[in-house]
Amino acid sequence: MIFENRLCKKIIKTNRPRRRLTFDVIDSNPHGRIFSMRPTHTGTMSKLKNKKRNLEENEDEQLPIFDKDGGKDGPHLDDGDEDQGDLSESEESVFSGLEESGSDSDDEEEEEEDEEDGSEEKSSDVEEDKTDRQLSAKEVIKPQTDGQNSKEKKKKKKAAGKEGGEESVASDRDSGLQISSQVDEYEHDTSDEEDIRNTVGNIPMEWYKDYPHIGYDLDGKKLFKPIRNKDELDEFLDKMENPDYWRTVQDKMTGADIRLSDEQVDLVHRLQQGKFGDVNFNEYEPAIDFFSNEVMIHPVTNRPQDKRSFIPSLIEKEKVGKLVHAIKMGWIKPRRPKETTPQYYDLWAKEDPNSILGRHKMHVPAPKMKLPGHEESYNPPPEYLMSEEERLAWEQQDPEDRKLSFLPQKFACLRAVPAYSRFIHERFERCLDLYLCPRQRKMRVNVNPEDLIPKLPKPKDLQPFPTTQSLVYRGHSSLVRSISVSPSGQWLVSGSDDCTVRFWEVSTARCLKTVEVGGAVKGVAWNPNPSICLVAVSYDDTVVLLNPGLGDRLVCTASDQLISSYEEPEEVKDQLVQWAVAEGEGHEQGHRLILKHPKAVRQVTWHGKGDYLACVMPDNGSSLQVVIHQVSKRRTQNPFRKNKGLVQCVSFHPIRPYFFVATQRYVRVYNLIKQELTKKLMANCKWISSMAIHPGGDNVICGSYDCRLAWFDLDLSTKPYKVLRHHKKALRSVAYHRHYPLFASGSDDGSVIVCHGMVYNDLLQNPLIVPVKVLKGHTITHDLGVLDVTFHPTQPWVFSSGSDGTVRLFT
C-alpha cells in the first residue's frame, strides 16, 4: 500500500508525459494486491492513481457528500455539474475491482497536453500515441458522452489556466468520488425498446381501422389517430415540394408520420444490401479459441460430492413402487414380443371374399390348368395311342407346335408306371406362369384402323387430272430451267442453259422456232393477255421482250405496233434500267425491246393485264431486288425502299391490286394502291423456292427446299392451313390450274405430284386437298430433277421441264 502511494506521487510530480513502467491494480481484496506492469503515459495515469489512493484512505470513513456539517469547503451536489463527464468506466472499475487499462478520454487528454507542450517532441511521440490508442480501443469502448464531457472539462480547465501539481489532481479526485455516488446506470440505456406510448400489444393494427383511436396509453386513455384529410393532389404536392418526403414513414402503432434520420436511412440501405446493421461490426474477425487444447491437471471445481449421490432416491423408489403396483393390478400391460413367424397368404385368393386380394378391383385370377384327359391315362384307349408315323411327325415338330406335350403310353398296371421325367420342369414352368403373369388389367379400346384414316374421296371421283405421259419435247442440250404456255394453249416456250429459247407446238411436240440469246436462260414468261403476243426472256442482267410471230398475224402486228408507237416524253428522267429497241439481226429473230438491269435477273412474271412486268434480282445487301416495268410507257420503278431478306420470287394477284413477295421464310402481301404491307405469311420452312396464287386469289401455295409444300388460306390465318410432305427432295416449282381444282409440284426426286385442291365459295368450309397422282418420267441429272411445272390454260394437262434437257406433257 505504501509502495503504491509513493509510486503514484512520483508519477504525478513529473512535468510532462513519458513512457514508464507502472503498476495497475488487478484485484482489490482485503488480503492483498496483485500488480501488473504495463507501459503507459505517466501524465494519463496520475488522476487514476490519486482516485485509487483516495478510495483506500476513505474506506472506513463516511463519504464527504453525506457529511452532516456540509461545510463551505465540502463538496456540493451542484459542484459535480462542472465535472459531470469525468466519471468513466475506468473509475467504476476501481470500485468494483476489475482491471481497466486506460480509456479514450485519457488518450484525448494526452493529445491535447502534447499540443500545448509544443512541437518539440512530436515526432518521437507519434508512435507512442498510436500504440496507446490501439491499446485503449481494444480494452475499453466507452459511451460517447464521456468523451464529450471530458472535452468540455478540458476547455474549462484551459480557460482557468493550468494550476498543475497535486492540487488539480486532488480536486479531480474529489469530484470523481462525488459523481460516482450520483450516477444512474440506466440514464443512458441504449437497449432497443419499442414505442410504449401505445399499449395494445402485438396485435394487427387493421383492427382499429374503423375506429377514431389507434390504441391506449399507459393510463388507459385512447390514443386518437392524427387527422388525415389529404387527398391524392395534396399527397402529390407534398411529394414534389417536401424534400423529406422520401424519408417519411408512417408509424403503424401511433399513426403518426416519422422522419427517418440519416443513421436510420443508412441502416435501411445497409440491410437492403445484405450487410450487417452495425457499421463497426467486422464479420471477418479472427476466431477466438475459448477452450484450450491443453488438458488441465486440476478439476474445474474441488467441491466434494453430496451424500445423496451415493444413496438410492426415495422419490424414485416411490414412483417405481406405483408402477409395479399398476402392473400387478393389470392397469399397465407390458409389451408383448412381436411374432417372428412369417405370414403366408394365397397370392391368387379369389374364392375367399374376406381376403385382401379377393376384394381387390384389379384382381386377376390364376389361369386354371387343363384337367387330364384319356390320353394321360396309364391305360388309354387304343385310339389315343400314336402310330409310328405319328410318333415321328410329333418328334419333328417344335415343342410349342405340338398338340400334346407328351407321348401317350400304355401300362399293364399302375405299379408299372415309371416316374414322369418332365415333372419338375413342368412344375417350374407353372410357377413361372403364376409369378410372371401381368397383374394389371389393360382396358383395350377396340378401334377400327380404317376409322383413323380421314374420309377422302376416291381419285376416280375427282377426275379429270393428268395421269399419263403423252409427249416429250426434245431439242435442248442442257437443263431446261423455265417453261411457259401461251394464253391460247397452242404454243409452249422453254428456256435452257444452252443459251437458247425454243418455241414448240403443244399438240405435236414440234419445235417451230429457236432463238439464241447471250447467256443461260433463267426465266421465260408468256404475256397472259391474248391480244398481245410477247414473251419475256431473262438471262444474265438482261431481259428481252420477244415477238415469236406465232399464231394470229393480226395479234403479232398489233404487238409490234404497240411497241413502235411509243413516244419519248419531253423530260427524260434517269431510270434504274436502260430500255433499248432491238435492231438488225436481233429484230429479225424477234427481239423487240432489251432491258439492261444493274444485276443478274432470276425471275420474270407478268401482271394479268399484260402491261406490267416484274423482275427479281436476288441480292442480300441491296434494296434493289425487285423492279416493276411498264411496257407501254417504258417506265421502271423500284417499289421497295428496303427489302427485308433475300427475295426468292414475286407474283401479282390475279384479280386485286396485291403484290406477293416471297423471301426465305416469309411471304409478304403488299397493297399496291395504298402502298402498305397487308399480310405477312409464315411458311414454317427453312427456304422458300417457289410460289403460286390460286385463280380465286384467296389461297397461296409455297414450295420449299426442305421438301415441304405449304397451303395458305389467306382468310383463315397467316400460318399454313396444310403442310404436305409428299416429295423426298427439294421442291423446285409449284403451279395452280387456271380453271380446274388442281395444283402440281415438281421436285428434285424427278417426280411431279398432282393434287386435287377444291376451294369452296362457302367460307365456313375449308379447302379439300387430296393427292391424286405421282407422275414420273424425268431422269435425275447432277442431283436435279424437275425444275419447272406449269398447267395448260384450258385442258387438265401439266407440262414439266427437267435437268435431262426435256420438256414432258402429262395428260
UniProtKB/TrEMBL annotation:
<dbReference type="GO" id="GO:0000466">
    <property type="term" value="P:maturation of 5.8S rRNA from tricistronic rRNA transcript (SSU-rRNA, 5.8S rRNA, LSU-rRNA)"/>
</dbReference>
<dbReference type="GO" id="GO:0005654">
    <property type="term" value="C:nucleoplasm"/>
</dbReference>
<dbReference type="InterPro" id="IPR028598">
    <property type="entry name" value="BOP1/Erb1"/>
</dbReference>
<keyword id="KW-0690">Ribosome biogenesis</keyword>
<feature type="repeat" description="WD">
    <location>
        <begin position="779"/>
        <end position="811"/>
    </location>
</feature>
<keyword id="KW-0677">Repeat</keyword>
<dbReference type="GO" id="GO:0000463">
    <property type="term" value="P:maturation of LSU-rRNA from tricistronic rRNA transcript (SSU-rRNA, 5.8S rRNA, LSU-rRNA)"/>
</dbReference>
<feature type="repeat" description="WD">
    <location>
        <begin position="473"/>
        <end position="514"/>
    </location>
</feature>
<feature type="region of interest" description="Disordered">
    <location>
        <begin position="29"/>
        <end position="178"/>
    </location>
</feature>
<comment type="similarity">
    <text>Belongs to the WD repeat BOP1/ERB1 family.</text>
</comment>
<dbReference type="InterPro" id="IPR012953">
    <property type="entry name" value="BOP1_N_dom"/>
</dbReference>
<comment type="function">
    <text>Component of the PeBoW complex, which is required for maturation of 28S and 5.8S ribosomal RNAs and formation of the 60S ribosome.</text>
</comment>
<comment type="subunit">
    <text>Component of the PeBoW complex, composed of BOP1, PES1 and WDR12. Within the PeBoW complex BOP1 interacts directly with PES1 and WDR12. The PeBoW complex also associates with the 66S pre-ribosome.</text>
</comment>
<feature type="domain" description="BOP1 N-terminal">
    <location>
        <begin position="208"/>
        <end position="466"/>
    </location>
</feature>
<keyword id="KW-0539">Nucleus</keyword>
<dbReference type="Pfam" id="PF08145">
    <property type="entry name" value="BOP1NT"/>
</dbReference>
<dbReference type="InterPro" id="IPR015943">
    <property type="entry name" value="WD40/YVTN_repeat-like_dom_sf"/>
</dbReference>
<dbReference type="InterPro" id="IPR019775">
    <property type="entry name" value="WD40_repeat_CS"/>
</dbReference>
<keyword id="KW-0698">rRNA processing</keyword>
<feature type="compositionally biased region" description="Acidic residues">
    <location>
        <begin position="79"/>
        <end position="92"/>
    </location>
</feature>
<feature type="compositionally biased region" description="Basic and acidic residues">
    <location>
        <begin position="120"/>
        <end position="141"/>
    </location>
</feature>
<dbReference type="Pfam" id="PF00400">
    <property type="entry name" value="WD40"/>
</dbReference>
<feature type="compositionally biased region" description="Basic and acidic residues">
    <location>
        <begin position="66"/>
        <end position="78"/>
    </location>
</feature>
<dbReference type="InterPro" id="IPR036322">
    <property type="entry name" value="WD40_repeat_dom_sf"/>
</dbReference>
<feature type="compositionally biased region" description="Basic and acidic residues">
    <location>
        <begin position="160"/>
        <end position="175"/>
    </location>
</feature>
<dbReference type="InterPro" id="IPR001680">
    <property type="entry name" value="WD40_rpt"/>
</dbReference>
<feature type="compositionally biased region" description="Acidic residues">
    <location>
        <begin position="101"/>
        <end position="119"/>
    </location>
</feature>
<protein>
    <recommendedName>
        <fullName>Ribosome biogenesis protein BOP1</fullName>
    </recommendedName>
</protein>
<dbReference type="GO" id="GO:0030687">
    <property type="term" value="C:preribosome, large subunit precursor"/>
</dbReference>
<comment type="subunit">
    <text>Component of the PeBoW complex, composed of BOP1, PES1 and WDR12. The complex is held together by BOP1, which interacts with PES1 via its N-terminal domain and with WDR12 via a high-affinity interaction between the seven-bladed beta-propeller domains of the 2 proteins. The NOP7 complex associates with the 66S pre-ribosome. The PeBoW complex associates with DDX27, BOP1 interacts directly with DDX27.</text>
</comment>
<dbReference type="GO" id="GO:0043021">
    <property type="term" value="F:ribonucleoprotein complex binding"/>
</dbReference>
<dbReference type="GO" id="GO:0070545">
    <property type="term" value="C:PeBoW complex"/>
</dbReference>
<keyword id="KW-0853">WD repeat</keyword>
